[in-house]
Specification:
Number of strands: 11
Strand content: 15-25%
Radius of gyration: 21 Å
Number of helices: 11
Oligomer: single chain
Order of helices and strands: EHEEEHHEHEHEEHEHHHHEEH
CATH superfamily of the largest domain: Vaccinia Virus protein VP39
Length: about 400
Amino acid sequence: MKRRLLDWIVCPRCGERPRLTVSREERIALPGPVRTPACASYCARYDVARPREITPAPDCNDCFRDEILEGVLACACGATYPVVDGIPRLLPDASNPAAGEPVKDRRSDKSFKLQWQIYREGDLTWFKEDAGLRKEEFLYNLDVTAAELPGKTLLDAGCGNGELTRSVAEYGLEIVAMDFSGSVVGARRRLFEKGFPVSHRVHYLQGNVLALPLRPASFDLVHSSGVLHHTPSTYRAFRSVAKEPKPGGKLYIQLYRRREAWVHGINVALRAVTTRLPLRLLYALCYLAAPLHAALSRLVHRLRHEPPPPRSTARERAVQMFDNYSPRFQYRHTVPEIVKLFQSAGYEDVKDVTLPNEARHMLAVLGTRKAEARNEAESEEAVRERATG
C-alpha cells in the first residue's frame, strides 16, 4: 500500500478518513518522477485540505515510494482495518445487515479466492489473451484512445487476478484495483515479483462494492467487469459504484445477460445444487465435465452456423464453469434495464458497448456522469474543507 492511496480511502462504515499507524514499511524505487500527483484537494501525508499551501512544498514522489506492508487504519467511529501483506483490508463488519451493512457472503469470498488461486500465469481469462486482446478491448469499452489516458485515474471495482489492471496501467493510468476476495494478494505479489514498471501506479485494496471504502467523485474512469451481478443486489451495487466517477467521468459496467427461458431454467436448477457443494468438490466436478462442456459448445456453434469457440485447456474451461456455478449470488439482466439504471443515476451518453464475442452471455453499458453532479461533489468538498479549517 502506498501512502498515495490514503488520498482516496474512507471508512466504509461512516465515510470519514481513517488514520494510519504503520508497523512495517519499505522504500521502493520509482522508474522516474511521478507525472501527476492529482491530490489537489487533500494531502493525506500532511492531513490538510489545501496541499498547494504547504510550505515548503512536499515531494509528492514520497507518497509513491513509501510501501506500507503492515499497519492499521483506525477511524474516529471506532472501526479499525488492518494492512496485511501490503494490502488494506477495508471490509466492514457485515454481521448486522439491518444496520445497512452488506450481507456477509463467505462462500463468494472463498469461491473467488480459490478461483484465482487455480489461475496460472499464461492462462486465458474467459478464453482471452489478457495482455493483448483484453487491453485493446478496454479502449473500446471505455470509448477512449490510448493517447487520452496518461495521468488519468481509474477504479477497477472487482479486479480479480489483476492481469487486466496491470496491463491497462501501461497506458499511463493510475489505478485503484479493488476486490472482495483475497485474490488481491496474488495480484499484488505478481505485480512486484515480475518487476513491472507500472507497480508504483497500481494500488490494491480489499473492499466491498456495497460499502465502498473510497471517496465519491474521485476517478476519471470506473470499470467493473463481471462483478455486480454476484452481489446480493445488482442495483444497490450499481448505485454504490455510480458515485465514484468525477462529473464528466465515465462508468463501464459488464454483467451477465438474461438468456433464453430454457437456458435460464437449466442454469437456475443446476445452481440450486452446485452453490451448496463444497468448493473443491465443485471445482473437481467442473474439471471432469470440461470435455463434455467443450463438445456441447462446439455443437451449439455448429448448429447456429457460427465460427468454432476459442480453444481452451481443461483448467481454463473448468474455471469458467466454476465462476458460474459456485458463487452464492448470480443475477442476469437486459441492456434496456441497465441503460435505464444509468439514466436514473444521472448519467448521459449511455450506450451499449457489448463486444460481439461476448454478446451471447454478457452485456456491457457505458455512461458519462452529468456535469450537474459537480455541484454535489463541490458541496461535499466545501464541508470537508470547513471541517479541517
